Amino acid sequence: MEISIANSTEKKLNSFDLEQNAIVLNQELTWLNTVIHTRIALHFGHETPYETIDELYPPDITSYSSPYANFVRKNHLTVQERLVLVLALVPHIKPEVLDILCSKNQDYDRRFSEFGGLFVQGHNGLIPTAETAMFILAGDDLIKRLHYQYIFDVDHVLITSQVIKNTREKKDVPRLSQMLIVSNEYVDYLTTGKSYQAAYSADFPAQRMTTKLEWKDLIVSQATATSLQEIRDWMTYGNVVMRDLDLEKQLKPGYKSLFYGPPGTGKTMTAALLGKSANKPVYRVDLSMVVSKYIGETEKNLAKVFDQAEHHDWILFFDEADALFGQRTQVNSANDRYGNQEIGYLLQRIEDFSGVVILATNLKDNIDEAFTRRFQSIIEFKVPRVEERHRLWKQSFSAKLPLDAKIDVLAIAEKYEISGGLIMNVVRKCTLQAVANEESVISQHNLEISIKKELQKEGIILN
C-alpha cells in the first residue's frame, strides 16, 4: 500500500512573498520594540512622549497577504493578542529585542521580577514568559492584568491551535511563569509560509498519513464503496446538514466510522484517500504512545491531538483501535479504574469532535458494544473477491515493467485468495527480482514464486 507518514512537501514562499512577509514582521518587531521601551519608561517614571502604551497603534497590515498578516486576520486577533504573538515569535527571529528586559535591579542584585522571562540552555537570550507579556500589556495596573488573563487560558486560540506552546505543566508555580514561545511548526508558517505540520513526539502521538494513490485506485466491494461514499458526502455537505438546516441541537457533531476486516484489505489506505479526496490532512494516532503510565498524561496528550485536529480540520485515524476500545476491564485495582477513565475520556473527545474520526480493527467483535453504538457507520473490508483481485493484479504493475502478456491474470486471481496488501508485497518482490535479473517483463515463474514466498511468510502452506 502506498501510504507514508509525511512531512509537508508544499513549497515555501517565493522571493516576492518572502519580502512581503519580512516587511510585515519588521513592522511588528519595530512596534513591539517601541511598546517595550515605552512600558519600561512608564514603569520607572522616565521621560516619554506617551502616557500609555495604548497610544502606540499597531502597524496597518491589512493590505498584505503574507502568512503572518493572514493569521492575524483569520483569527481576529486583538491588539493585545497580536503583541503576545509577536513577543512569542521574537526568540526565533530577533532575540535582541528582549535584551533590555535582562537588566538587573541594582537594589537586589538580580533581574526585575516583574519582567518575567527565563533563560534556557542553548539560547543566549531571554525567553519571554506570560509574566513578560503581562508586564508589557498592563504594567502594574491590576485591573488590566486581570482583564488580560484570558489570553493565557488553555482554551485561547493561540494555545488550542498550539501556535504558542502550552508549557504550564509544573505544579505549584505561578500561572504566568509559563514559557511564551511560538512552536517550531508555526515558526515555519509565520516566517516562510511553509504549511503547518504537527511534529510527531512523545507528547504529540500522531503522524500525518499521505498517499500517492487516487480514489479511482481503490478497489473494494460495492457495499463498502457505497458506505464510504456516505463519509465523503458528510465531508462535503456536513455543514449544510448541521448549520444551514439547523440540526446542530438534535445531531451530535462530526462523523465517526469503524473500519474492520483482515490485515491488508485497504483500511489504512482508504483513510488516507478520504483525506486526499476532501483536501483534509489525515493523522494516525499512535495508541501505544497515547496510554501513559503517568496519571493525567494520557488525557493531556490526547487533548493536544484533538485540539489541533479541531482547529485544523483534520481527519483522525485510530489504527488497531481494539487495543484501547476493547472490552473494558473489571475494576480490581486503581490502575484498572484509571484505565477505564482514560477510555472514557477518549470516547468523550471522539463524541464531541466535529470532524471525521475513523477507527480500524481487524476484528469487529473486539470492540466494546458500548462504543459501536456511537458510530455513524461500520464498514467491512473483506478480502477481495476474484474480480477485485483480477483488477488489482492488472493495475498494480509498472507499465515500464509489466506482467508477461502470456500470463493468465484471471487464473492467478482465481488461484490465490489473498488480500490487496499481500498483492502489493508480491508486486514489490517480483518487480525487484525482474530488475535484478535485467528482465523486461514479469514472468509467470517469477510471479508465482513471489506469491508462494509471500504466503509462506504469512504462515500459509500450499499443497
UniProtKB/TrEMBL annotation:
Name the UniProt record assigns to this protein: ATP-binding protein
PANTHER family linked to this entry: 26S PROTEASOME REGULATORY SUBUNIT (PTHR23073)
InterPro entries: 26S_Proteasome_ATPase, AAA+_ATPase, ATPase_AAA_core, P-loop_NTPase
A molecular function GO annotation: ATP hydrolysis activity
Coiled-coil intervals, chain numbering: none
Domain of life: Bacteria
Keywords: ATP-binding, Nucleotide-binding
Domain AAA+ ATPase: 253-385
